[in-house]
Amino acid sequence: MKVWSGYGTEHSMNLVMVGKFEDAKSAEAAKEVIDRLTEAAEADEAAGRLVAGDPPEEFSEQLWQLLRELEVNSLGYADLEQFLYDVQVGVDQDKVVITTDEVDVIAFIKVLLHRGAKLKIYSAHEHKGLGYGRPT
After folding, report:
1. Cβ-count burial of 79 within 10 angstroms (0-12 exposed, 13-18 middle, 19+ buried)?
2. What is the rounded CA–CA span in Å between residue 68 and residue 72?
3. What is the pLDDT at residue 100?
4. Considering 8, 23, 56, 81, which has the largest number of Cβ atoms within 10 A of its Cβ?
5. CB 132 within 8 A of CB 30
6. Alpha carbon of 17 to those of 60, 102, 119: distances in Å?
7. How confident is the model at residue 41, as a pLDDT?
8. Are strands 95-100 and 15-20 parallel, antiparallel or unpaired?
9. What whole-number distance in Å separates Cα of residue 61 and Cα of residue 40?
10. Is 130:16 a contact under the CB 8 Å cutoff?
11. pLDDT digit string (tens) for 113-136?
């Protein structure tokens, strides 16, 4: 008889990240940066320049121009695929609220911090009743 044992990641994170800003206008601007980076990552994926699990060795010209325009200079090549993940990004007054089942969210942390957010990150599995996250 063969016995299989191993480690899996079947448990979803139900991660919530809340970036608090000075005002609603700043929160909207930060969400816009995330939206534009997501669109660029999706375009690079569609063009075959970005493959999840295989970070690019350099930014595409389109993405490089966007990063310069947005003045986001802290993202690395491996960070880009995070914008392809199943992530919900919303604005709640002066907050950007990100929910996902992923744990690899450094790209979002970098963008929110760069835009001036004060961050709170937690698992909604463990911290129920804080107003965000998927119902469990």
Report:
1. buried
2. 6
3. 94
4. 81
5. no
6. 28, 11, 7
7. 96
8. antiparallel
9. 11
10. yes
11. 999 999 999 988 776 666 666 655
Least confident of 12-16, 25-29, 34-38, 92-96: 12-16
Predicted pLDDT at 110 = 97
- Return the SS3 of 124: coil
Largest distance between two CA atoms of the chain:
62
Torsion of CA 115, 18, 123, 101, to 10 degrees: -70
* Positive or negative torsion for Cα 123, 125, 126, 130: positive
- Two structure tokens written together for 6: 């191993």
Query: For the chain, what's the residue count?
Result: 136
Confidence band, pLDDT 50/70/90 cuts, at residue 3: low
Q: What is the pTM of this model?
A: 0.86
Q: Give the span between the Cα atoms of 77 and 107, in whole angstroms.
A: 10
